[in-house]
Amino acid sequence: MPADASRPGTGLFHRWEGLILILLVAVTTWASLGVDGFANSSNVSFLLLDVTEIALMALTMTLVIVAAEIDLSVASTLGLSCAVLGWLWNAGLPIEAIMPICLVAGALCGALNGYLVTRLGLPSLAVTIGTFALYRGLAYVILGDQAVADLPPAYTGLASATLGPIPVMTLLVALLAAGFTAILHFTSLGRAIVALGSNEEAAFFSGIRVKRIRFWLFVASGAMAALASLIFTFRYASARADNGSGLELAVIAAVLLGGVSIFGGRGTLPGVLMAVLLLGVVRNALILADVANEVLNFVTGLLLVASVLAPNLGAVWRRRSSPPLEGKSAS
Amino acid sequence: MADTPPVLALRGVSKSFGAVRALREVSLELAAGEAHALAGENGAGKSTLVKILSGVHRPDAGQILLDGEPVEFHGPADAQAAGVAVIYQEPTLFPDLSVAENIFMGSQPRGTLGRIDRRAMRAQAVALFDRLGVPLDPDRPARGLSIADQQLVEIAKALSRAARVLIMDEPTAALSGNEVARLFGVARSLREQGCAILFISHRLDEIFDLCRRVTTLRDGGYVASDLISAITPDDLVRRMVGRDLDALFPKQDAAFGEVALQVRRLTREGVFTDVSFEVRRGEIVALAGLVGAGRSEVARAVFGVDRWDAGSVEVAGRRLKPGSPSAAMDLGLALVPEDRRQQGLVMELSIERNIALAGLGEVRRGPLISRVAERVRAADWAQRLQLKHRSLSDAVDVLSGGNQQKVVLAKWLARKPAVLIVDEPTRGIDVGTKAEVHRLLSELAVGGIAVLMISSELPEVLGMADRVLVMHEGRLVAEIPREDATEETVMAAATGRPAGGGA
Ligand SMILES: Nc1ncnc2c1ncn2[C@@H]1O[C@H](COP(=O)(O)OP(=O)(O)OP(=O)(O)O)[C@@H](O)[C@H]1O
Ligand SMILES: [Mg+2]
């Protein structure tokens, strides 16, 4: 085994990512052969389109979790942004003006999270559970339970347009994924994120602006949720306050299944993207195979649990089995 | 006397980690009532040997003998049951439990119905501290105890379990002079009570002071076991290094330039008060004092890790923004921190990435990190500091303690700072490399860098410093030029006794 392969936090590809890739190929092959209607181009387009929002939010979520934080409010931010869109559209603003406003609103949601976490020193888990409820609640305040559906066809069309079997939005995802992969794995910002997620104090002593980076990660997460909200709204041609509710679990599950350590400091974006696809393929195949909804939920739940457990099992096991003194020994 | 077998012995023990052969057929005998030193350079295998004796690692080959009988330790619990206790440099107590509760953790005296008998526990703790001759309060919480006191609690814990073998892996590295003396007092009385002691230190004088025998390792191999009375420190160094060492403190005289670091009336409430000093280019200024005098805190504030309440810091005439290490680094400041595991290194990251971490801007080509630049930077410094490692892409947590310290030094020296603050730069570093680090600091000074060195080792302070500043209880109490700096003058100021002359 090459020295680089097994070590956390350094290379692009580790054993875990290899496992996900094999699983992805296996499940896809099984579905293509065994599930009617899986391997045709319209289903492929549908599948890819269906994971767009999850994939986008997983990009920023990966950075956030590698930095040893978490953002549970992404789906609520998405909902809030949808509500803002619907409300302003009803008020008669042009959609080109509304979209940047939504992005700013998402960024502001992220900024509030970031402020509470970095300035007031509150744990992000608690903060974003709070804003999870807050932002969704705000969405209802803004839009109530109406659905705004008369959105401009130019945009609703674009949101589900395809080039061959590939949706245009997937190209956008690919572009952003390439950018985020470069950031996490090949830039000094990425190095800093990994370092601060692994040992915040040592990162701070190394001149890394720990708080600033964390703050902007939350802002990015919020803005990305807003971007996802635009695609979501146009794709379903419906802006509602409850858009995307529950999506945060799918995003976090994909990130953890992709091999990102819930303790921070470790994880790769290729792994996460493959996990997003894997979860998408499984869901899609099971739906096509007419699996009962309860079973579908069960399997999805199982994958969620597995995704949380498996990649971190090694870490948990190491923690528990190493005698407390060993790690602290002087030399 | 004649034929009692050693309490604990290793015979032909080998241990490898992957391709690294940490121990090769090492033998060692610990006799009751005897203090035995284990010497060797960084990475020689000392801690690995300790971990085998304490059941953390299992040997690949060879035997552990308890009272002459082969035993196998399947884990630390087995070793403890056999009467082997280990004191590490940084003990791990439960901070919110009382001292007595910590001592009896897992083996509390029981009363009726199996309830923990607090009164018995307390009485036994008092008896233990009496036996050790140290006045520790068994009722106070462990939080806030000095490292030295925590070690004593660990020793009391070992005693409460009737430990027959006490192993101490670099216990003195973070202790001040008095605390070392107290620890040695305790060790001697244990020795007299029939305990076997295994002692590891990079300070030769401590080995010669405490121990009767010394076993030397080099590169994982057994070199020799000698009676201390039969060898000199030079002999011991030769056994460790395999050759003669040059003078230990090759301090060169440098020409002083303009003031590089100017600290004026710096105050952080409750921590240090009204600290003013300057360091010129080419000068090495030592900050001496007892552990807890506030030296590291001053360094942390100057570097921006902590905020200060009043005063100012200037680097080369430019005022420093408080509370920002990155601003300090932009002005050419570097701090090699006190605690390498917490503050110096990201343990899971590789050697090269740790070295690059403080200079990410310098290993960048365009917007991206250049792996080549990163590798070259690390390789250069690994060689200059004689880092003992397998591959630069190995995580730093597999390095020996001293070699981890070298990585921290490399990380900061690679930045080519204008003002270098080093906090205990040679803690845990072996004699040979210590001389190397001193040579390096001296060279840096000659090259025009201003060096502020915090050190608890008086020989280091006296050997290296052009000027010695002494702190006592958060205040700067003396400034002693090189000519007047002696053990007496520095210690007098450090302990707050009025010195003969000024201050
Ligand atoms: N868990 C491990 N995995 C891989 N290599 C290891 C591990 N533990 C120790 N080593 C290697 O074994 C060798 C001996 O290390 P050890 O910690 O015993 O040295 P030491 O004599 O205690 O040094 P120091 O004086 O610096 O504390 C080193 O080369 C070290 O890198
Ligand atoms: Mg060691």
UniProtKB/TrEMBL annotation, chain A:
Pfam families: BPD_transp_2 (PF02653). GO terms for molecular function: transmembrane transporter activity. The chain crosses the membrane at residues 12-33, 45-65, 72-91, 97-117, 124-143, 163-184, 215-234, 271-289, 295-317. It is a multi-pass membrane protein. It is found in: Cell membrane. The keyword Nucleotide-binding does not apply. GO terms for cellular component: plasma membrane. Keywords: Cell inner membrane, Cell membrane, Membrane, Transmembrane, Transmembrane helix, Transport. PANTHER family: ABC TRANSPORTER PERMEASE PROTEIN YPHD-RELATED-RELATED, AUTOINDUCER 2 IMPORT SYSTEM PERMEASE PROTEIN LSRD. This is Autoinducer 2 import system permease protein LsrD. It comes from Acrocarpospora phusangensis. The gene is rhaQ.
Automatic annotation (TrEMBL), chain B:
InterPro entries: AAA+_ATPase (IPR003593), ABC_carbohydrate_import_ATPase (IPR050107), ABC_transporter-like_ATP-bd (IPR003439), ABC_transporter-like_CS (IPR017871), P-loop_NTPase (IPR027417). Residues 8-244, 254-498 form the ABC transporter domain. Its main location: membrane. It comes from the Bacteria. It is found in: Cell membrane. GO terms for cellular component: plasma membrane. Keywords: ATP-binding, Cell membrane, Membrane, Nucleotide-binding, Repeat, Sugar transport, Translocase, Transport. CDD domains: ABC_Carb_Monos_I, ABC_Carb_Monos_II. SMART domains: AAA (SM00382). GO terms for molecular function: ATP binding; ATP hydrolysis activity. SUPFAM superfamilies: P-loop containing nucleoside triphosphate hydrolases. It is a peripheral membrane protein. PROSITE patterns: ABC_TRANSPORTER_1 (PS00211), ABC_TRANSPORTER_2 (PS50893). The keyword Translocase applies. The keyword ATP-binding applies. This is Ribose import ATP-binding protein RbsA 1. It comes from Acrocarpospora phusangensis.
